[in-house]
Amino acid sequence: MRGADAALGVTGLAAFLALGEAVPRLGLVGEEHFPPTSRIARALLAEAGDGAFWTALGDTLTGWALGLAVAVGAGVVAGVVLSVVPYLREATASTVEFLRPIPSVALIPLAVLLFGTGLRSVLLLVVYASFWQVLIQTLYGVQDVDPVAEETARSYGLGTWARVRHVLWPTALPYVMTGVRLAAAVALILAVTAELVIGAPGLGARIAVAQTSQAVPEMYALIVVTGLLGLLVNVGARAVERRALAWHPSVRGEVRV
After folding, report:
1. Cα 238 from chain centroid?
2. Closest CA to 173 of 242, 82, 92
3. pLDDT per residue over 162-174, tens digit each?
């Protein structure tokens, strides 16, 4: 069954690439706006042979990885603290609901004003966008803790840290991993967006340069790279999630199927 699914996926990708080759060749779209797949592939190979491309890729991955790490750590800690400290969740609920809907791109002027067009501006946007994904999922996970298990742990004399470790964390971990997976994708989007808009070093800045210089095949090649990065991030996040939750019934059932 999995072999058939893989074959269908490959067939669909091949059909998509063939369509991308045929549409501009047939004159349905101007090649100056949408070059054929073969031209994009040649531009991609040329980019792969350029050292500046790999430097830009490293800059994008650095901003993504650092921002995601900070967001995950801060989101998990904040979520646990807000949930276990009495009345703190209620006291901060309105603040969280006010700050969470603010689009991260709206902070671009603030990031440029504070940090210019360097890595710190990218980190500000990435951390802000990714933090809420992890925080909200952590709060949901802690809320899902079985009250009977909590009271049983208290009756056996477990302290706060022991209850967090043995009762709260196993329940919240599936939610946390969902938040991490969502945050990984959001972090990549914001990293590329920040580079594209403010000119911070990375793939986004190279896309902007290619667009302004009318290097259309190179622009599409770089866009393909960002798409491949997104695919790898999603696959990697799901692999980490399955490994971290190998003991969980949902993942064990998925593996059996």
Report:
1. 11
2. 242
3. 877 778 888 888 9
